[in-house]
Design a protein that fits this description.
The protein is α+β, with helices and mostly antiparallel strands and 745 residues long. It contains 14 helices and 44 strands. Among the domains are: 101 residues, no CATH class; 165 residues, 8 Propeller (Methanol Dehydrogenase, Chain A), CATH 2.140.10.30; 246 residues, 3-Layer(aba) Sandwich (Rossmann fold), CATH 3.40.50. It is globular, with a radius of gyration of 29 Å.
Length: 745
């Protein structure tokens, strides 16, 4: 009985895929079932966590023998079972009245508590604790799901901000800042220029010496309201009307003007706003520890100027410590990094000023660059740790090693740019989990065509201490499944490599042709092609119906050079299509079975929903069938931060040029639109305006509205409908009669 479920799945799957030679049925119910049968067939390390400040960590592994938890002492290089699995199962069953098996315990994560004498875990929404000596299991409190807290502040009870020396507190009343001695009734007003239309928020920041504070006079922007009608609420018969605030590109924004208040003299210092006019955002106000000044960050509307500003506490004079500028955009949402050392004497800052995302060391007192910390034609992806004592940092980067420029490695380097050391090896994308003291880390790496391996390493030099797990995919390969192929082709400039993957169906036959479907997500905020091993994903499932399914990162996406990224600027409609089409053509030139002669299918969600519809509007000679879910089809209709980040400000004709609504009349192929009526991420009206434009242009299309649905591709139903659409229009086969299959009343 031990592995019955696993063996049953394997036998069923093998039975489904081992078809007699020559049987090439497509679009059948068996194909759909096979599409979902690849889950959970990879063995290896699945989860881990370090235990407090110790050098101990646990990890969970999966394999033919089921699920097992292990405990590792990194310092002593010892590994053992984290607990007696059979005994815990026995005692848990006795306490819970269940029949859990030792190799299939009903939890995936554990916590060691009470000096590692007890184990804590959750089962069916409840906390349990197990004593590791007696193995007595006790049921505790219900797991509380984190909800949105409600503010307790009222006009009668203003939120008070206590000074660091605990003698005074500041608060907002009648839109102005007041101060009082703690424990006393006497109060006095500091500001007098607050009003209904321009008020002081309760974001009040005291200086460390408690002699000053900073408040912000705030002029609110336009409050745009989106209206929703939930047609089929679960708790009543009648529809519900719901509204939410949702700022869109071009809307007037909130403006914040910091004021410096000197408490004893009751002086108010108004800062000269020359360096922070035309705000998109102003925030991260923080005092220096010696109260000499405070800093704040300014993001200019249009995202072409980003400054770290400092105001001198004695004079109120504002100066720029860092003044980042770009002719296109500054990727503040994805690449911003700042770390202040020694109370601001130095600042570590990330910038793409040399064409690649790198780290710079600033003199925090003068605002001058002391040195560039990292450099080269590769990109820093994130900073993991800054060791101020050793003056070294650990960071993630990609593109420095030969091969795929998106694969992540970990490095250590001195703040002066010396001693660059790669901490990870293995030609894959790495994910590291560090001990609290940053002395050790567990390094797990893989590629789409290489299963995961996990190694314990020293953080000082990356030296391997202990091999942990090497994933076993024997059972997966026995099904006939093949790993995706990594494929590169030159982009529109003829020199830049475009990286993508090719997914083939089980039982792939190179002697026949397969229609091609592309999964697209061209959001400029990141890169999106999978770089780590997965046995199951929607692309592979779709391939099982008789398709080749691919994905690539065209120009305009992130994590390459600044020039590569800039292709998206003020033109999200581009979506890298010139690179994508060349990539498809290069694959077709190499592989006869890659059939793009009758057009390519494409699908995507959200930004991918915009791009997939754009494919059949702007490139109908190449893309002929599209399924688009919850797309932001017109960048004037979507959330402000994402769209102005890439499309810029002010709103101009370039917004209209990229609009699927404006260009809906171009439709020539087959289009299927999906939208959730309660989508709070992308305004559902964005899709409905495309629908309206298609109707006005007398175009045929399919539409699925999900009642109560949010930002979704439609769930399992939407997935099945998407598959049906491609089966019908690319394979030329009628999908199964699902109504007949599911039966009726």
């Amino acid at each position: 009985m031990k592995n019955l479920r696993f063996l049953s799945l394997s036998i069923l799957f093998i039975a489904l895929i081992v078809l007699p030679a020559g049987l090439q049925a497509q679009g059948t119910i068996e194909d759909y079932e096979r599409a979902d049968a690849l889950r959970g067939m990879v063995n290896g390390l699945a989860d881990l966590d370090w235990i407090g400040d110790s050098d101990l960590f646990w990890y969970r592994k999966s394999g033919r023998e089921g699920k097992e938890f292990l405990l590792v002492d990194a310092d002593r290089r010892r590994r053992r079972a984290a607990f007696d699995h059979a005994r815990l199962a026995e005692m848990l069953n006795r306490a819970a009245g269940e029949e859990y098996e030792a190799d299939a315990l009903p939890f995936d994560r554990i916590e060691f508590v009470d000096d590692e004498q007890k184990l804590r875990f959750t089962v069916e929404g409840w906390w349990w604790t197990c004593d590791l000596e007696s193995y007595e299991c006790r049921k505790g409190e219900e797991v509380r799901r984190r909800g949105r807290g409600e503010s307790q502040q009222t006009q009668d009870e203003p939120r008070a901000v206590v000074s660091p020396d605990s003698t005074r507190e500041a608060f907002v009343r009648d839109h102005n800042i007041w101060v009082r001695q703690r424990g006393e009734r006497e109060e006095y007003q500091l500001s007098f220029d607050g009003s209904d239309g321009e008020y002081y928020s309760d974001s009040i920041i005291w200086s460390p010496d408690s002699r000053m504070l900073v408040g912000s006079l705030t002029r609110p922007g336009f409050e745009r309201i989106i209206h929703y009608v939930e047609s089929s609420p679960e708790d009543q018969v009648q529809p519900k009307h719901v509204t939410r605030v949702y700022t869109k590109p071009g809307d007037a924004l909130t403006v914040r003007n910091p004021r410096l208040f000197r408490i004893d003299s009751k002086e108010v210092v108004t800062l000269d706003d020359t360096l922070f006019e035309n705000q998109y955002n102003l925030g991260r106000i923080a005092w220096r520890e010696d109260s000499r000044s405070f800093t704040f960050e300014y993001n200019q509307r249009g995202h072409q100027v980003y400054r770290v500003l400092e105001s001198d506490a004695s004079t109120g004079i504002v100066r720029a410590l860092i003044d980042e500028q770009s002719e296109t955009f500054i990727d503040y949402s994805g690449k911003r990094y700042r770390y202040d050392l020694a109370d601001g004497e130095e600042i570590i800052w990330a910038s793409e000023r040399d064409g690649w995302n790198h780290l710079y060391l600033y003199n925090g007192m003068t605002g001058e660059v002391k040195n560039q910390i990292t450099s080269g034609e590769w990109v820093v992806r994130s900073v993991v740790d800054v060791d101020e004592d050793s003056r070294e940092i650990i960071f993630q980067a990609s593109g420095r090693e030969p091969g795929d420029p998106y694969l992540i490695h970990y490095y250590r380097i001195g703040l002066d740019g010396s001693g660059l050391t790669r901490l990870t090896d293995g030609a894959g994308s790495h994910s590291a989990t560090f001990s609290a003291d940053m002395e050790f880390f567990v390094d797990t790496w893989s590629r789409v065509d290489a299963p995961p391996e996990s190694v314990l390493r020293r953080a000082s030099d990356g030296r391997s201490i202990m091999d942990l797990e090497e994933s076993d995919i024997t059972d997966l390969l026995a099904t006939g499944w093949t790993m995706p192929e990594v494929f590169t082709a030159k982009g529109r400039d003829g020199t830049t490599d475009i990286w993508g993957i090719i997914c083939r169906p089980v039982g792939f036959d190179a002697s026949r042709g397969y229609p091609v479907i592309e999964y697209i997500y061209a959001g400029p905020h990141s890169s999106h092609v999978p770089k780590t091993f997965r046995s199951y994903h929607s692309m592979q499932a779709l391939a099982e119906l008789g398709f080749i399914v691919v994905q690539m990162d065209g120009m305009g996406t992130s994590n390459r050079s600044k020039a590569f990224h800039d292709m998206c600027w003020q033109d999200l409609g581009d979506a890298g299509f010139p690179d994508r089409i060349l990539w498809h053509q290069a694959v077709a030139a190499r592989y006869p079975w890659y059939d793009i002669g009758d057009g390519v299918g494409i699908y995507g969600t959200s930004a991918g929903g915009q791009s997939s519809t754009g494919a059949v509007l702007f490139h109908p000679e190449f893309y002929t069938v599209a399924v688009s879910a919850c797309g932001c089809h017109d960048n004037r209709m979507d959330k402000i931060w994402w769209n102005e980040q890439w499309m810029g400000w002010p709103i101009g004709p370039h917004y209209e040029a990229s609009s699927n609504v404006v260009n809906a009349h171009r439709l020539q192929g087959q289009l299927f639109l999906i939208v959730g009526e309660m989508d709070t991420n992308v305004d559902p009206a964005s899709t409905m305006q495309v629908v309206n434009a298609l109707i006005e242009a007398d175009k045929d299309f399919d539409l699925l509205v999900i009642p109560g649905g949010g930002h979704t591709s439609g769930g399992e139903y939407g997935e099945r409908r998407r598959r049906d659409f491609f089966v019908k229009h690319l394979l030329g086969v009628d999908p199964p009669d699902w109504n007949a299959k599911s039966g009726g009343g």
